[in-house]
Amino acid sequence: MSNTLFDAYHTVKTAKELWNQLERRYITEDATSKRFIVSKFFDYKMVDGRSVMEQFNEIKSILDRYSQHKLALDEFIVVTSIIDKLPPSWKNFRNNLKHRKEDINLDELGTHLRIEEDLRKEEKSKSEGSNHFLSKLSKRKVNVMLRKTMKMKWNLEGANE
């Protein structure tokens, strides 16, 4: 027994009394831990700017702690809650998932989220590439316009002399 436990319980006379006190203490801690885990799941909110899959995996780790504490939560409720937790930029995707006729399980949801996130990354990189091309194109147009303007200015100055 650790020193702190010994100091707290060394005055207890019988093993049964010690057992009862320890049981009360740790059952209370376990109940508090369960409440914390339940709150952590229901209060979790996904945010923009972070990987949705990373956040999905954080939620799954919270759910793993549910099973460690022998807590059960219906998979339909879990999946629906996670869909509701998707970040604001995923609103259309969230609505599409909610309007599906068939139910999906947690693994299927993970697959859908991974595919959607990969598509969004691909789309973003394509649009950044085209924006880079457009900005180069715009710079070229500006340079051409400047050259034409300067040429006209020189031609006018040369004609006035």
Automatic annotation (TrEMBL):
Pfam families found in the cross-reference section: Retrotran_gag_2
Q: Note the superkingdom of the native organism.
A: Eukaryota
Q: What is this protein called?
A: Uncharacterized protein
Annotated source species: Escallonia herrerae
